[in-house]
């Protein structure tokens, strides 16, 4: 990776949010940054003259760029903070201090308090966050306190002290911000029910609170206590208008390694996320070349052992996409939902982005290798006997049965070969019969290739389902080509791929490169065919308007259009100008028809 030129590394970066890391020639980390758009932000370092000397020196030292993709900008901000704290890069001056992002703490005590903090202490209290700004925390606290009255004092509200009358209510009680649990005016059961609802609100689940308040509102309204019902309604509106943002870290997930694998026929990519104290501190993707068609389980097992040794990981718990046999002292989890599942999905997304980045780099540095890989993948995906280096795709075009035409587009080595594209006017079929039209054009195309001894394609794609595919097969049977050329049909609705004699279609992954090439062929055939159809229909309409004039035939109409370029100009032409082209007699008829 370090030998890859910077411009190639830049061209392969994704456009989504994430965190980037710059490394020098010795693979030492120089800088960690966040971006809303990774490609634009990182490219900006190399596309302009920088005002500050420090930035110019940094850019000169950059030899390798790594990145981690995340779902949102907020996640990028949090992850940037974690990585800077972990690695302390030389050029990250601003965030090297020990200041961390704020959390919401639900204190482990009787009548729990809820307050913001920047320190996570393991005392049994519950922590939520981190949040990207204290403003977000204050907004959430204001929301909760406007709906639920909570105590703010730090008294020890044990049952004995409350019964002994040790405390007196404060101003917060008289303002209506607290229900006075210090004097026993609020039961611990009622307070705990509030706390349960608050926990759900912080997580973004308002169902319980809304259900409770709506019941209260209806009860007050039925008793004609309308002012109280209105206050409850205001609380419901506050809850419904608030949306909590999720984060990619969870303080309960501590010292865990996350591994996922993404593989194709030649390579596998294993991503590793390392979590410490609820924060992602490392992301690394390993590229593995397959040798003996190894399974994903075998490759992941090998990668886990090697990566953990390389980074000296001491984590005893692993999150994996499927069970793998490892050291018995390790705890293996296969998450199905929640924060753990989201971490697994984040790891998989990074593996996929890394794979795409490598594909893009190979495409620039070694286009032949890129083509060979795609051709080998198509051969495997479509169960072909040879690589489809030459592919042809057919599409019919007609609107309400008029001017039926067909198009054949040709791809060579996965790219359009426009000089080989062909149009067909339907000759033997009357009316809108797609099946018969497909049979005709396939027969004409390959009859001609056989007569001219031109090379035949390895794959034919028919735009349509089983009906069009069967029609094309009839022509191949007549020409004796069935079995010599692979042929499939693609149905538009669900992108189903049909094979001859198989009633069950093949569904390729929507992100599969094989499907993308087939879709490109289909779309190109449709575009090429519809353009020809429109031109033919337009020309037909113009000619018919002129030929409807007595004494004007196809040759006269052609001569007029050649001279005047359009029917509108013919209509506007003077008698003398018309006579110069078609003679006095025809000019009188044409001029008289339009005037």
From TrEMBL:
Provenance organism: Maribacter flavus
CDD domains in alphabetical order: GIY-YIG_UvrC_Cho
Highest taxon of source: Bacteria
Keyword list, A-Z: Cytoplasm, DNA damage, DNA excision, DNA repair, Excision nuclease, SOS response
The UvrC family homology region profile domain, residue ranges: 262-476
Family label: Belongs to the UvrC family.
Lineage: Bacteria, Pseudomonadati, Bacteroidota, Flavobacteriia, Flavobacteriales
Assembly information from the UniProt record: Interacts with UvrB in an incision complex.
Cellular localisation: Cytoplasm
Pfam families reported in the protein's UniProt record: GIY-YIG, HHH_5, UvrC_RNaseH, UvrC_RNaseH_dom
Record-annotated GIY-YIG domain positions: 15-93
Reported function: The UvrABC repair system catalyzes the recognition and processing of DNA lesions. UvrC both incises the 5' and 3' sides of the lesion. The N-terminal half is responsible for the 3' incision and the C-terminal half is responsible for the 5' incision.
Protein name, as recorded: UvrABC system protein C
Recorded name of the encoding gene: uvrC
């Amino acid at each position: 990776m370090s030998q890859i030129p910077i411009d190639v590394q830049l061209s392969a970066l994704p456009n989504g949010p994430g965190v980037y890391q710059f490394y020098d020639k010795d693979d030492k980390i120089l800088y960690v940054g966040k971006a809303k758009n990774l490609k634009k932000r990182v490219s900006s370092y190399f596309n302009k003259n920088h005002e500050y000397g420090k930035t110019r020196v940094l850019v000169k030292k950059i030899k390798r760029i790594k990145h981690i993709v995340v779902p949102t900008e907020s996640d990028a901000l949090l992850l940037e903070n974690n990585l800077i704290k972990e690695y302390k890069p030389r050029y990250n001056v601003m965030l090297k201090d020990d200041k961390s992002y704020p959390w919401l703490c639900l204190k482990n005590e009787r009548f729990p308090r809820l307050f913001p903090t920047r320190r996570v202490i393991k005392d049994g209290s519950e922590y939520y966050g981190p949040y990207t700004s204290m403003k977000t925390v204050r907004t959430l606290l204001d929301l909760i306190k406007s709906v639920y009255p909570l105590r703010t004092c730090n008294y020890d509200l044990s049952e004995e002290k409350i019964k002994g009358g040790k405390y007196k209510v404060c101003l917060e009680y008289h303002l209506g911000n607290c229900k006075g649990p210090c004097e026993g005016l609020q039961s611990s059961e009622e307070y705990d029910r509030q706390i349960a609802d608050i926990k759900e609100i912080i997580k973004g689940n308002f169902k319980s609170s809304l259900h409770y308040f709506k019941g209260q509102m209806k009860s007050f309204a039925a008793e004609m206590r309308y002012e109280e019902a209105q206050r409850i309604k205001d609380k419901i509106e506050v809850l419904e208008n608030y949306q909590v943002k999720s984060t990619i870290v969870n303080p309960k997930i501590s010292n865990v390694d996350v591994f996922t694998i993404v593989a194709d026929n030649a390579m596998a990519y294993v991503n590793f996320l390392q979590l410490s104290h609820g924060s992602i501190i490392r992301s690394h993707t390993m590229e593995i070349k397959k040798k003996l068609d190894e399974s994903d389980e075998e490759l992941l097992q090998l990668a886990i052992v090697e990566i953990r040794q390389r980074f000296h990981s001491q984590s005893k718990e692993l999150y994996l996409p499927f069970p793998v046999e490892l050291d018995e002292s390790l705890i293996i989890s296969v998450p199905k939902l929640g924060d753990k599942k989201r971490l697994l999905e984040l790891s998989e997304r990074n593996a996929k982005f890394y794979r795409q980045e490598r594909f893009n780099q190979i495409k620039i540095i070694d286009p032949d290798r890129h083509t060979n890989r795609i051709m080998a993948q198509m051969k495997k995906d479509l169960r072909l006997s040879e690589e489809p280096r030459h592919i042809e795709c057919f599409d019919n075009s007609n609107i309400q049965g008029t001017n039926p035409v067909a198009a054949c587009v040709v791809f060579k080595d996965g790219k359009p070969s426009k000089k080989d594209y062909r149009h067909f006017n339907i000759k033997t079929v009357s009316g809108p019969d797609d099946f018969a039209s497909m049979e005709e054009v396939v027969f004409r195309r390959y009859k001609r290739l056989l007569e001219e001894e031109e090379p035949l394609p390895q794959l034919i794609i028919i735009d349509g389902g089983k009906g069009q595919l069967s029609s094309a097969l009839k022509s191949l049977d007549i020409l004796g080509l069935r079995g010599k050329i692979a042929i499939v049909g693609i149905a538009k609705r669900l992108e189903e791929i049909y094979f001859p004699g198989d009633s069950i279609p093949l569904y390729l992954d929507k992100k599969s490169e094989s499907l993308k090439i087939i879709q490109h062929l289909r779309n190109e055939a449709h575009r090429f065919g519809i353009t020809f159809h429109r031109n033919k229909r337009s020309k037909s309409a113009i000619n018919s308007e002129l030929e409807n004039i007595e004494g004007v035939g196809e040759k006269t109409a052609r001569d007029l259009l050649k001279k005047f370029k359009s029917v509108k100009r013919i209509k506007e032409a003077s008698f003398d100008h018309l006579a110069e082209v078609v003679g006095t007699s025809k000019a009188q008829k044409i001029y008289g028809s339009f005037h």
